[in-house]
Design a protein that fits this description.
CATH class of the largest domain: Alpha Beta
Structural class: alpha/beta
Strand order of the largest sheet: 1-2-4-3-5
Strand content: 15-25%
Number of helices: 4
Largest sheet: 5 strands, mixed
CATH superfamily of the largest domain: Alpha/Beta hydrolase fold, catalytic domain
Radius of gyration: 17 Å
CATH topology of the largest domain: Rossmann fold
């Protein structure tokens, strides 16, 4: 059986190969972030709105979050959280914009994306504390943002899935 990779993932792999350079894991964190951001650069979709919200954290400074909503939304929206992967080092709202926008489109939910401080700039458990603070904030203040918080969903990839 011949190996198969779906076209979207194949395009990502091809873009990485075309960019050249050493593998991400051999780069310094800032270099690896720049490469990944470049590979994921695109125009944001217009059918999904994005609002930047700084959420207070008791143990550190505020955590940046992006609240993604369907542009045509009316009434309070169900809420999901998306916690990004990247080994606690990589990943951002930009690298996950397409994925989170698809999640918004397919579910009709608002999606809160906590952009926790990456390592090595912050050490564990700061990333967890920031993500938890974002959940607390939106559950307690969801009505101010047009959100239903009686039931929430949690999602994530790689480190963010843990």
């Amino acid at each position: 059986m011949a190996p198969y990779l779906d076209p979207v993932n194949q395009a990502f792999v091809d873009a990485g190969a075309k960019a050249g350079g050493p593998p991400l894991q051999t780069l310094r964190p800032d270099e690896a972030r720049a490469v990944l951001e470049g590979l994921q650069q695109h125009e944001p979709s217009r059918d999904v709105l994005r609002e930047n919200i700084d959420v207070p954290v008791r143990t550190s400074g505020p955590v940046k979050t992006v609240l993604f909503k369907p542009a045509n939304a009316s009434g309070p929206l169900p809420l999901a959280f998306y916690f990004h992967g990247g080994g606690w080092i990589l990943g951002s709202p930009n690298t996950h914009d397409s994925l989170v926008s698809d999640l918004v489109r397919e579910t009709g939910c608002a999606v809160a994306f906590p952009y926790y401080t990456p390592a090595p700039e912050a050490q564990f458990p700061q990333q967890f504390d920031e993500a938890y603070a974002a959940v607390e904030y939106y559950v307690q203040n969801g009505d101010k943002h047009g959100l239903r918080t009686d039931k929430i969903a949690l999602a994530g990839d790689s480190a963010g899935g843990s």
